[in-house]
Structures are given as C-alpha cells and as structure tokens.
UniProtKB/TrEMBL annotation, chains A, B:
Organism, as annotated: Tepidimicrobium xylanilyticum
Descriptive protein name: Ribonuclease J
Keywords of this entry: Calcium, Cytoplasm, Endonuclease, Exonuclease, Hydrolase, Metal-binding, Nuclease, RNA-binding, rRNA processing, Zinc
Gene symbol of the encoding locus: rnj
Pfam family, one: RNase_J_b_CASP
Reported function: An RNase that has 5'-3' exonuclease and possibly endonuclease activity. Involved in maturation of rRNA and in some organisms also mRNA maturation and/or decay.
Amino acid sequence: MAKKTNKLKIIPLGGLGEIGKNITVFEYKDDIIVVDCGMTFPEDEMLGIDVVIPDITYLLKNKEKIKGIFLTHGHEDHIGGLPYFLGKLNVPVYGTRLTLGLVENKLKEHRLDKVKLIEFQPNNKLKLGSFTIEFIKTSHSIPDSVAIAIYTPVGTVVHTGDFKIDFTPINDNLIDLYKFAELGCKGVLVLLADSTNVERPGYTMSEKTVGDTFNDIFIKAPARIIVATFASNVHRVQQVIDAAELYNRKVVVSGRSMINTINVAYELGYLRIKEGTMIDINDMHKYPSNQIVILTTGSQGEPMSALARMAFSEHRKIELVPDDLVIISASPIPGNEKTIFRVINKLIERGTKVIYESLADVHVSGHACQEELKLIHTLLKPKFFIPVHGEYRHLKRHGELAMELGMPRENIFIANNGSVIEFTKNSGAITHEVPSGNVLVDGLGIGDVGNIVLRDRKHLSEDGLIVVVVTMSKQEGKVIAGPDIVSRGFVYVRESEDLMEEAREVIREVLSECEKKNITDWATLKSSIRDALRSFIFEKIKRNPMILPIIMEV
Amino acid sequence: MAKKTNKLKIIPLGGLGEIGKNITVFEYKDDIIVVDCGMTFPEDEMLGIDVVIPDITYLLKNKEKIKGIFLTHGHEDHIGGLPYFLGKLNVPVYGTRLTLGLVENKLKEHRLDKVKLIEFQPNNKLKLGSFTIEFIKTSHSIPDSVAIAIYTPVGTVVHTGDFKIDFTPINDNLIDLYKFAELGCKGVLVLLADSTNVERPGYTMSEKTVGDTFNDIFIKAPARIIVATFASNVHRVQQVIDAAELYNRKVVVSGRSMINTINVAYELGYLRIKEGTMIDINDMHKYPSNQIVILTTGSQGEPMSALARMAFSEHRKIELVPDDLVIISASPIPGNEKTIFRVINKLIERGTKVIYESLADVHVSGHACQEELKLIHTLLKPKFFIPVHGEYRHLKRHGELAMELGMPRENIFIANNGSVIEFTKNSGAITHEVPSGNVLVDGLGIGDVGNIVLRDRKHLSEDGLIVVVVTMSKQEGKVIAGPDIVSRGFVYVRESEDLMEEAREVIREVLSECEKKNITDWATLKSSIRDALRSFIFEKIKRNPMILPIIMEV
C-alpha cells in the first residue's frame, strides 16, 4: 500500500511508449480518479491474441480509493479496455453523451449491466474527494471529444486527450480555446498532451477539406460510390451523408460496427440525416446505381470486413461492378499497409476504380501537428509537462518541442507506463514504478497467455512439430509399442516418407541404446529422443520443429 | 510442349501483381532468353518460410531452348532466385560487372561453382539464336543497372529493368537517354517498364541531394555518426565515404552484407576510397568519437541486423552512447514500419539522436516517378506496352499513364504472372497461361511446404495444440494407459490444471462410451475424442487449439 503524502501522483498505466491502451491514474491521498481505459491490437509476435489491455494491478490494490473513471472520447484505444476494467472494478463512469452511448453498447456485449454511467458535459464541474473535474471541448476524429482539467490541492492539471485544432469543424463543434486561455491565465501545474503527430510540421488539415474532395468526386461518379472509413468517425460519416443528399443519392450501410455507430450517433443527435436518405441494403436494387452510396467498414483492409468481402466477392448483398467507385477514406495504421493494399489491388483487378490517400485528399488526421501543439502549450503555459499518447520517439520529440517554447528540460517528464510522477506546488519528479504492462486477451482467457505460451506458438508457427509416442513397460523398461511419429506444420508427409522413416530409425536406435543402458528414467529417455531427432532433422533439412516425445507407461 | 509459331512470346513468370521475384521469359520459335530471376520475402501468412522464389516449371519443360539469362542489376528481387534457378538449369548468365560480382558471391554460398558467368556491357550487342541483345545504361539505387533492348524477328523490345532518371548521379553514371531516343526513332514494338513509383507525381530526387543532407549533418555532429542503409546501395555508401573524407572521419563497417558488398564494389572499382579512410572495427577506440563514421545494415529494423543489435545492446563491438547520431538512410518497405520504428524508439530511449526520413532528406527512391516514366514512354514511342514490376494497382495506373500519352487501350497488356503475351509485327494479345506462382523455401526444402503445412502452422500459431494419447489393447479394445494430455502454445498449464483435468474427464467419457459400443475402429475413436474435446474447450475458453489424438495399440 502506498504511503499517504501531500503530493499529487500521476501514473500512466498505458499509452506511453506505444499508441494504444491509454489509461492514466491521478492520485492524491485517499482519492484516485482514472482517465480512459483503452485497448490495443496485438503486436505481430503476440500470436493468436485478440486484444491487449493494460495491467491494472495497481488499481486493484487501491480500489477503495477510486472515485471514478473519466473518458475523453469513444475510440477503442481509450474505452476498449473498459469492459475488462469494469469486470473487476465497479466504478462510476463519466463521459460525454456519444462516448457513453458507445460504451453502453460495448458493456451490453460483455453483459455488464450494473455499471453506473454518468453523463458529464463540458463547462460543468464535479467535485470528487480532493479533485474537481471539468471537461473542455476539443476537436478530434470522433464527436464529443474532450480534454480534462483536474483541479487538485497542489494545482491544476490539464490532460488534452486526443485532439486537433479545427477552425472549421463539422457540426460547429469548435475546440474551446477560451477555456484553455482562461486555465493558462490562472496557472496550470501539469500538462499531459497528445504526441501522435508531433513529428509533423504545420497544421492538420480541417475535416471540411475532405468534404470538398467528396463533393468533387460525387459530382463526377457515374455509378455507385462505396466509402470505407472508420465507423467511429461520425464527422466523416456526416460528410458522406451530406454529399449524398446534395447529389441525390441514397445511403446504404454495410458492416456491423458501422451500423452500430451510426445508430448510436443518430439516436443521440450526432448525425443530421434527412428523412428518406438512408435505405435498407435490400432496397438498393430499386434505385439506379448513380443514386447509391454505400457506407462501409474495412478501411484498414481487415480480412472479415465488409469492404474486403466485397473485394473478394464474398459479400452476400453487394456485388461490385467495374463502374463502381470505392473511396478509402482513411490512412493505413502503421503495420496495416499490406492488408489494405491487398484489398485495393483486388478491387482494381475487378475493374472497380479506387481512390485512396496517395491519390486524393480523402482523409485527414485527428491529431494535432506541431503548430497546434505549440498553440496549446503557449495558451496553457504549464509549469510541468508529461508528453503522452505516443511511442518513445514521439514523447521525446514532444519534450523537445516544449523546450523550444522555453520550458526547462528538468520540468519535462518522459515517463514510462508505470512511472509514478509526483508533484507538489513547486516540484515534480519521477519517484518510482508500479506494475504495468500488457495483459493479453485470447478468447475468454484474460492474462492466461504469457511468454511461454507465445514462445511455443512462435516456434510452432515457424517449423511445426513432431510428436513421438512410445509405450514402455514400467517393470522391464522395454518398448511395447511405437515409436509412432505424427507431424503437423512440418513437411508434406506424403512427399517425405523417407525422411520420416529415417527419423523413426533414429528414435529406435536411441531406444535400444537406452534399453542397453537400462535407463528407466523417462525424462532422460525423452531428452535423448529430442536431442537425437533434432540433430537429425536439422542436418537433413535445416529446420527446427518442436519435438514432443511422449512416453506411455503400461 | 508449346507449338512453334512466328510469334514472339513474352511471359512474365514473376514481378507482376507483386513487388519482388522478377523474371521474364522471351521466346521465339526454338529460342528462349530469360531476364532476371529474383526472390521475394514471404507474406505474413507464409509462416516459417525463409524466401519465396518463382515457379519455373515452364522453363524446366523448355530447357533445351534457353540460350541465356540476362540480369538488369544486382538487387535481390532480380538475382535472389538465381541459385535455385541455376541449381536446376545450367544456363549462361550475362550481366554487368558489379551485378556478376554480387552473383558470384551468392553462388559461392550455394556451392554452385560450374556456372558460366559472362560479363556483358552496355553498347555491345550479342546474337543468341533469333535474338540480339543489348544493354542500355540506366540510373538506379545500385550501380551498373541496365535496361535491355531485345531485337527480335518481329521487332524491338525494351525492358527498362528498375530505373530512375538522375541528371546528377554519383560517379557520373548517366542514364543513356541517347540510346532510348535512337531506339524510339527506329521503332519499338513492345516496352516493359518499371511501375513501382507510378502513383507518385513529378520526379524522383537525385541521389546527390542525400549527399547534401549528409554534409549538413556531418559538419554538425559532435561525436560518432552511424549510417544505416541498404548494403547494395553503393552510391549511398560512396556518399557516406565522401562525407567522411571531407570531414576527416574514419569509416568502420559493421554487418555481414555491408562488408561483403563493399568488398565486391571496391574490388571491381565501383567505390572510390582514399587510403586510410577505412579502419578495422577493433581500431575504432584509437580515434576520438568525432572522427568516426560507422556504416551498417539494419535500415529495415531487421532483428538480427547490426543496427538492431546496437539498439538493444547486443552488438559485441559497438556500444552506443547518447552523443552518437544515427542516420537511417532508407524508407521503410511497406510492412516493415513497425520493426524499424521499434529500433528507432529503442535508439532514442538510449539517448541517441536518430535522423530518419520523416525528419530529413536522408533517402531518395531508386524508381522513376510519373514525369520520368512519361519521358521514357515518349522517347521510345512503343507500339505495345506491358507495365511490369508492381502490384496490380501500379500496373493499372501505369497503363492509364500510357493512355494519357496517347496509346490506345488495346495496345496495353495488364498481365499476370504466367500470362503468355504473343506479338507479331502488328498485333499483340494475351493468349493463354502457363504455370507460375510462389515456390516457398524453408531451410533446405524447396517447395515442400505448401498450403496444408502453412494452414497447420497458422492454426498452431493462433491457438496451439493439445495432444491426447491413449494406449489401447488391440484384442479387447480396452484402454490400457492414458488418456494423457500434453499441450503447447495453448494455456499456462500450471494455472489451468482444473481445465486440463476436466478435459481428461471428457476424454474418459468418450472412451468409456466407445468401449460400451465396442468401437475398435481407431479413426472413429479419434474423431470422437477430437469432437468432444473441441466443443468442451471452445465452450470453456472460446479457443480452438489443434487437437491431435494418438492411439497406441498394444
């Protein structure tokens, strides 16, 4: 149990040194509030893993202190870990309307129905123990995004959440620069700010520019238009709908997450849709093709997504034809380049025209570039700065940006997940570490797949395995049946019969050797089999399959 | 056996619909020449595969016709498949000096010492059967790159190889635009041209611009400079050496492929190095750190490369310190983004400064952009066009570019690997297909890993496996020993003892059920075990491991 002090502790448990699974803990004496609880997708070497969530051991140990969890917006890297978190910690959840709408959906899927969801809007203040919390409106690639001001006994902390500065946003949701200015005027102790785009000079383009590109494309398209984008990008969806209405097209939605998000966003008033614009996918044939837009998922090339299914002729309701035009309104997330281009190539092979980012301005980022970051730093004038939401290179570069603006190096904390950064009114320091890291979710198992299991999966994936079974008599130490050899993922057995027969011979020799030496210790016998077979196989074919000797005792 | 006709057949066996393993066949009556024979790296789903080479079944069937193989340059995607090709087909190999130097090295590794390597230089002509072949000097990211003119009885074919147009190349190796003009004047029947950068407008920057950036960086660097680039980019290496000599630094080389390539290039006169510039890695300590440059591999973040080993403190001779400056002089090849940024993050975490492409002009492409392609099309004025060296989207776009320049759509052939494109003096058509595709190399095995093995590896990689062994008496059909369960890559066994015990119980029930029913057909018994266990596991934990029941008969 941590010692009580008069210091404010800020503990990022996720989102530092990575883009994903954001979660930050704010602690003062007996009070803890948590900001966000995201998930991330598995790295390549995390074979078979579905999602990765943050390690919340520290919060479980301090659960009586937790007053609430505050959500900055409804993206998976900020809310995706919530069902797992709430499965273990029954804590009230505060968020804006759309964010909670999306969370509610998610909790239903996980059958978590006893969670207290509390709508909380910008410009209201909420006192929870030592903290007073206020949301500040920002711009981002999902509506209802907020920054958070946390008023603490040692000073004010501002966490930007994910943001950009868009002077011409969709739905007139301007970032509340007044509030940032006011906070800066009154004095900010610590800033935590989004580092995603810190390597990019200049400004992020306005979401409106994408709408202009849509208009240019919609006016010329001779037949159906298919737009693939992130389901959560409600502004993008709005612009597709606007362009459709302007050019007299009906909108069809395909893809489960797109349907879900549009439903939530529309019900909560985040989408303006004219009566009759949306039609059912089964009514599509009633309209000429130049009066149809299909809004869909799969902008990252996900193999099971609606767009991938269309590309590979596996979509049950939509058959693409050469006159169709596909717009990929998204950038590839690093690591997804190959999958998305596989879909694009397949679409073009079908004769469909495809417009993607390298060909037209059909996407803008949701994160602030250097000049926007400078504006926020300048308005807030924080005493201390913790760059968050970025790989190490982003955090470091963001620290340098703060120094260029005049902040002393020692007031900037390039921290890790698990770092405890303690603040008084005048000082700040990284003092120690608490447990943090990746919890791997595989099917229903949470955290039961770790390094050994992953190492085995990797080994199996590269060279397959050979199982050797021998039945031995316990009393005499003699072979009664076998050796039998079964292999999987190793070689085509039919074409490698000689190799397998030679392998069996190698094992027989080991067995007769052991019999001569009267070895009845099965562990020794197994390792002899493993060693002999491994050398034999490697010499023969330069592969190193997993070898699994099993001795049955009779 | 194909029918003899008076038509020229052009058959790409690799490099179409992909970037990699380029190989093109030119056939007229009894004569075949082959251009290039590359390799490619395995796709994500080709688990455990080392390299991928083209299927040359067609050439094996027509081997008596093959007069020679011509190499455009020494990159792996053009020469990497050669050892496998030459292991099956003893054919003379024609190439420029550096290309053959690199091939020689490669053949030594594969112990192929009886291959006839014939140096062939631009502006010479060689008659082989129905064909006369001429090399044309081009610019690319490796010296001694050439395009190929093939004079055939139906007309002249030009294959650009990989190229760009660099008016200020390193070592004054200007592309021979005169020859392209001359060929265009005389008339070109078919053009095959590099499509890699066809999506990019404008011109590719000159290699010289990278040298300017190096100079800016070298003059300011306070300590050691480490430059990581492709070993084969001899011009880049030259520019590093030039900058080192200019600013009085010694050059150390680390990384096997970098050492090999520099040796070959230097011996053949492709690198100008002053006496005393290169020093041994063991003498590095004799110089102050601001007099050292380290040239190294690992620009793609390859885990075993010298740069990655430096980043993760695993390099035996080089320990990085915070004042060191690392330049990554390369772009991430699509799919490598995550690995390279993992290395960059680690380097920055160590305190090392890292300069990479998103921060400075430390790399230029080796492939022609749109305006360069237009120039070559315009100079050559070919009657027919086959875009090559690209994914489908590139080939299609390149076809559109040719149409923008006035070529009729029907004269452009967007082909596949294996397409046979037949030409007379006035006509061209894709007539049929020959076998083509990927041959997977895993260790010493060539082509013995196919879909079933890969499917098993994928299954094993995602959910691991459970082996169930039972020893049965043949006569009575009774269980004598077992069931024993062994799992790998599935769950932590220690933490899942209950699950495994329940699983054993499920199998015992199946066995006793089968015993009651007097089932002595082991196939039925195995599939009963598999089905019961699969359902049980999926219900319990939503995973689907491979289940391998083995019955030992006594």
